[in-house]
Structures
1.
Amino acid sequence: MVLVMPKHILIFDSGVGGLSVYKEIQQQLPSEKYIYAFDNAAFPYGELTESVLIERTTHIIAQLCSLFPIDIVVIACNTASTIVLPTLREKLSIPVVGVVPAIKPAALVSKKIGLLATPATVKRSYTYDLIKSFAPISDVQLLGSTRLVEMAEEKMIGKNVDLKELEEILLPWKETVDTIVLGCTHFPFLKSEIKKVLNNNVLLIDSGEAIARRVTQLLGTIERGGQSEQKGEVYCSAPTKNEEALNKTFRELEFSPLQYLDYPKF
């Protein structure tokens, strides 16, 4: 019998939003070893300069690659993906997968599209290039919100989502879009609330499943069946007052308790 060792998959985000991507990957690849890392010391990433974002991301990922035999890195953050991928791919000899707004699949089903993302993502030329390339004849409305990122983080530690506040944020899209691209990995955690305030008359699309397929393709993983016997490990870059609630969430997802990185103070 040949013993097949699990692949080590590193998933990185500024907060816990990347867990939406983790869930999709883990569903396709349940037998692998997962390391989840988030840079909460600099959350939210949408407010960082590009140079600081690149420096922080490369520092943390390099640190984790020195601790574990990482086989693939997933940048589960739309803001970071539009900025750091070239630098990381130059520095690392392993595959690096990023997340981009799912404009292409949205344009296949609708001509009235809303792109919901962070303010940084809606400003990027990369985003406009995606729209020009894949949705040239669609009406694509952009809405950037840091508050929605915070609301998703709050939901992950057990706080209720303020539906009135959410409705006010999404008010410009009531009756104007029928398909919404969730252009931030935090936003899939708000799917039910978004549908509720928009009266369920909207299709929500995110990139999680496509990213999971890409990771599976790149790893060429042998199907072993069953769940990994090893718990995943989770790291953050600063102490958090919500540690108990976060550990409950991570425990439910088969992770060990939070550990702290030697994070850069810049």
2.
Amino acid sequence: MSAHKYELMLIANPELDEHALRKLVDQYLETVTNEKGTVDDINVWGRRKLAYEINGKTEGNYVVVNYTAEPTTSDELDRLLNLNEAIVRTKILRKDK
């Protein structure tokens, strides 16, 4: 199996301050680095209005992360993110074909 490039976009609870948001993101990115993957770029967009209401929220903290990992690591990251109630929504896209 070989590593692929991925882009993760997550929307976190708007109540989180920047420090708590960064801590939350770093916690999940350890999943990537612990499995010999690399985190290439983290782009915190901050608090934005959602296109539509999700779970009673109209705003969220947006974060975009580019990383390189095995497909199984990416699947595990997705699974873990979906278990956390502070994460409103996630999307992981494979960047290479």
3.
Amino acid sequence: MNTVKVVVKNVPDYGASREKNDLGYLTFDLKTDLSNLFNWNVKQLFLYLTAEYITPANELNQVVLWDKIILRGENALLDFKNMNIKYYFWDDGNGLKGHNNVTLTLSWNIIPNAGLLPNIQAIGQHSFKFPTEYTQTRV
């Protein structure tokens, strides 16, 4: 996994308050083969990409940025280029600008025909840095 474009803006989050908070934006490349996860008891996979980072206000921040469902029989060989995140990457303050260690992790839930619902984290992660200046232009 690679990050292609990374920017941060400082904009009002009207959903939570009128204060300005950091809003991160990134695009990513993702290449993986998940076909070996499918067997007779796997109905579908629920994939999700999370960002994890530490700020002075919070020891642990986790944000889901993107997700995808792959049904049995669909192509599980993924080769995505320059993908946009699906969900807003809000920080509850100003913790993204200049942050030098945000870690992306791909995880998945196996949805079986019968039995337990395991939650599996992929092997490997990707870390990136946010710029030290806010982006003023539209992304």
4.
Amino acid sequence: MAHPTEHDRTPNASEEPAPYSASAPLPSTTGRVRTHHLQQAKDQGRKFTMLTCYDASTATVFDTVGIDVLLVGDSAAGVVYGYRNSLPVTVEELLPLAGAVARTARRALVMADLPFGSYQGSPEQAYATAVRFMKEAQVAAVKLEGGAQMAPQIQRLVAGGIPVCAHIGFTPQHEHALGGYRVQGRGADAEQVLADAHAVQDAGAFAVLLEMVPADLAAQITHELNVPTIGIGAGTGTDAQVLVWQDAFGLTSGRLPHFVKQYADLSTVLTQAARAYAADVHTGVFPGPEHTF
């Protein structure tokens, strides 16, 4: 019989449980969110939440407030590593980030992106990559981009015991093939996105992420699919929403995607704090007597 790991364990009565969001539809304070809880939320007509996450500090905050799913996305390419798009980030670069989040989160389901080039070659390549994220980082699921053409990869992973979230619509790893950041599924292209949604569900995906898809199409897909949908730039009709946390909370500089709502201006707060610290050091105010042994 397998012994429970730190990743799987339920906190005992002597531990302080993470506060739970009153509006969250998923498990109790002491439970860990699983894929079947996401399915239950859809079946009950209740929304769930998802944010990107790349480190232990933010994982603690998001987990504490009751964010249901934490995605260690290949968006780390830009917000962590400074690349211009998601293509350069590697498995070796994402694994330690995924491990940090998975070790920290006590409640949220932690999911990791499979980087560009690490799964498209064959189902066996996809399985080998996904196994590394499951074993080395101890995530609970992986996400990969692509519709019907990725069905063999999804089938292989699911057959091997790895939960898969499929990502369709605008797929950032295909930025160059798609001609840039463009909405997918308008007009005659809607049928292809709809077909992709059904294909990845039929292949065994436990959820489908819809990015930059017209709201009416996303709502139709959500209605037709049995599995949950997660939207980003896909309107309110999906079962869940996800955003890159630096975009949502104001740490990203420059122009934001049209679909982002900013809930804070952390860039200004951090700038002011850094300036105050520098001024205190330059003037000798810090460290003061209270900070000195």
